[in-house]
Amino acid sequence: MRRKGLASMAVQTVASTTGTVDLGPASGLSCRECGEVFALGPIFACELCFGPLEVKYAYDLPSATATFPTGSALRKQIENGPASIWRYAPLLPVPADVATKPNLNPGWTKLVQADNLARELGVERGRLFVKDDSGNPTHSFKDRVVAQALEAARAFGFTTLSCSSTGNLAGAVGAAAARAGFRSCVFIPHDLEQGKIVMAAVYGGELVGIEGTYDDVNRFCSELIGDPAGEGWGFVNVNLRPYYGEGSKTLAYEICEQLGWQLPDQIVIPIASGSQLTKIDKGLQELIKLGLVEDKPYKIFGAQAEGCSPVSAAFKAGHDVVRPQKPDTIAKSLAIGNPADGPYVLDICRRTGGAVEDVTDEQIVDAIKLLARTEGIFTETAGGTTLGVAKKLIEAGAIDPSLTTVVVNTGDGLKTLDAVAPTTGMTAVISPNLDSFREAGLA
Amino acid sequence: MRRKGLASMAVQTVASTTGTVDLGPASGLSCRECGEVFALGPIFACELCFGPLEVKYAYDLPSATATFPTGSALRKQIENGPASIWRYAPLLPVPADVATKPNLNPGWTKLVQADNLARELGVERGRLFVKDDSGNPTHSFKDRVVAQALEAARAFGFTTLSCSSTGNLAGAVGAAAARAGFRSCVFIPHDLEQGKIVMAAVYGGELVGIEGTYDDVNRFCSELIGDPAGEGWGFVNVNLRPYYGEGSKTLAYEICEQLGWQLPDQIVIPIASGSQLTKIDKGLQELIKLGLVEDKPYKIFGAQAEGCSPVSAAFKAGHDVVRPQKPDTIAKSLAIGNPADGPYVLDICRRTGGAVEDVTDEQIVDAIKLLARTEGIFTETAGGTTLGVAKKLIEAGAIDPSLTTVVVNTGDGLKTLDAVAPTTGMTAVISPNLDSFREAGLA
Fold it and tell me: Which architecture, in CATH terms, is A142-244?
């Protein structure tokens, strides 16, 4: 990856309709493919090579570390910050006073030491942790990324927050927009389950059903961005995607801080587009570079459902590119058949000595129940996928049970009740008397 | 209320099967009616007058304040504590090392400054707050009370955690028991909605359907406590009720600490049994007595659904006692027709200058949507009831819009989707093209 002209980026700014762009330490965007740099703005693809853009920071510059706080000074600043992702504002594309602006203040969710689960999986006591993002305001990690996109939308003078979605993202955008005083307009396939429609619609924004598949919804959104009708619209996962993605770094920051400013040895992360996994790796690298944690090897493992396992298939076949699949799995929030960040995920998992693995729908349901009955955490199908893969990799010896392992739980079981309903019910039905109780063998 | 023999209680202990009972500052139980005192144990009714028992503390004693930390010293101790209810361990019936035991670590939920909502309700900016307990591990305030009951169960050597429930409590008990390594056995009416059964059953404990009404379930549980079959069973809301109830005090503690160690002027609380409201008042009184907040008047308001409004009816009629009602409301978690703490609630609301009010099911749904579209918080029907009543009281002039008001949101909208589903949906369905978008008037 080349670096050119980044020094001049540090002082470069873009005028938006509301004035100068202040996104804190963010100094510009750069292409992940060709390294070309761009000023901060609502753009997401390189003008030269169409590669994805990502945010560059003042602290990326070799010379900047002289003035940017590092190590224990930065640690102290973070520890004194708010109990939300904004404690890491110095490392994010947000203004320094971000916590004072109306937003949902996501993050700083629990890192649960999962000793019961460890016992069942044969992991050493005190070595297994679940990062439980169901504790976020709308109960998924999407609140983290949407909060970043919202700040970019503010900076660029947008007044409408939008996205295409089939679930968690719709609610996260609707809620964040409501709180921040933005209009929201979310696009979904018209035939979504009623429960998901309610969860997205209740925040009072526009919720537009598109007659077509999720791919049709996406295509329509791209069209809208290029049209005057889409002016002033921030699509969190399209034209604000470079900022949006940075929200996932906060998972890495929190995990390390909650481990006492240490890197985990092994971390298991679900793969949808693959963005979250790549950004967690980016976050870990930043912590090392800034002297917040001691450098040491860590392994990153990616988790997919068998019914949508293009990255896992490529990993096992030794391929560098990902062949698209047609998804068919209960893990709908991971059902992206052509994941944009697939090649980067493969690179990270191979480079760190990790792996990508997949599990069946049945194993996903089993893992949901395993986590609930051992730790009292009810996760959605994506979390079941991640834990199911962790279990499989521990059994296969790919994950070392004597080292620290973190399993990332990205969402809440209340949103995917249908997945466990057929096999989860009452253990007995009795008459209201002690004889009936004894006959049922419950005494 | 008389006080007798409390000094001797401070050194009194009860041997359980696991040894001496250590419940921290808890020194005994006393009858709320006749003042008789008892040693700590799994009892809930006075042997003399059958009045309800409540926990007494070392810091209740006039002489104890000399050794018990107060004021700024206690504030500092709390502020350095964990980000959960256990920061208040010195004020709760739990051992000092409670945070090291496996539990769900509930509490320390967000106090949201609700300026958008304030604007809509005509409240002065910066004066309206929502205490959002949907952020708890199983997304309701029940995690607070169950966590207390669990510590009492540990202290008394119980191995099974149990309760009767129609919703939130079942999940809270199932999850807490799983995490703590307890067996759980929860009793529900057999004809509960499937979604609620799944939410309770997923944690893997026994979930027993009782052929009968919720009253039949309750009667059966009382029978089981008196039978050898119920030996070693802690029913969180029956034989552990005095401890269980103390969990609600933490709402009062957190609200005041989050307001900068200040009492709110006005606080609106839902009424089911009425326990939560009385314990919040108790918590506020303790903060005053221990010098954690400055003493000043505050008003407590109780909220009920019109379809189950026995306390509101008694308040309006000027009665001291509550006439039972047959519940018929969408606010099922508040549908207790004969609330045990009704008379105490009436006393507190009258004494503080507050009120008890009720709203219709339609107003409950409107309030759920109002909170979602203004602050991005999706509450359940109980929260809709509380906000609906707050709105009604502001409009009636009973709540002063220039003073600080806290509205307590006890649960999560994902658990009562049915309440809003009929009136919450897509705003438009369009074909995936710009012409269709424009025709729908969305541009």
Answer: 3-Layer(aba) Sandwich (3.40)
